[in-house]
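Minutes, structural biology subgroup

Action item carried over from last meeting: produce the C-alpha cell record for RidA family protein (Bosea eneae). EB confirmed the sequence was re-checked against the source entry. Recorded below for completeness.
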Amino acid sequence: MSEIETILSPQVPAPAGHYSQAVAYKDLVFVSGQLAPRPDGSPTAGEPFAVQARQALDNLLAVLAAAGCGPADVLKVTAYLAGAAHWPDFNTIYAEVFGADKPARTVVPVPELHHGYLIEIEAVAVRRQTD
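Output recorded by EB:
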C-alpha cells in the first residue's frame, strides 16, 4: 500500500497553517489552494488582479513541478475569485498559462479571501509513469 507523500516547493512560501502545499497518493497529486505571495513571502495583495493571478498560477506551477508535474498533467482546477468581475481577466491569464492544455475547471466567485488576496487556486494532477 502506498504512503501519502508530502510535497513542498522551496519556490513558494511555506504554509502558515496546518496543511501541506500538496500531497500525493500513488499517481495523484492534490495541490492546496495557492494565494499570491511572491517566493520571498512578500504579498501581492493590494496589487492589480492580473499581478495576483499570475503569481498564484506561478505558485501553483511551482508546487506541481516539485511533485514532478506540469500543466499538461493537471486534471482539475478550482479557482476562487474575490468577485465575478475578475472572471474575464482570469480567463485570459489562465489561457496564457495553460495554453493548449484544458483541464476541467471550476471558478467560484467569493466575497473575499484571506489576507486581502483576490485569487486562490488549487488543482489535482496526475504523475505519469515514465518508461
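Discussion: The domain at 4-126 is CATH 3.30.1330.40 (60s Ribosomal Protein L30; Chain: A;).
Next step: EB to file the record with the rest of the batch.
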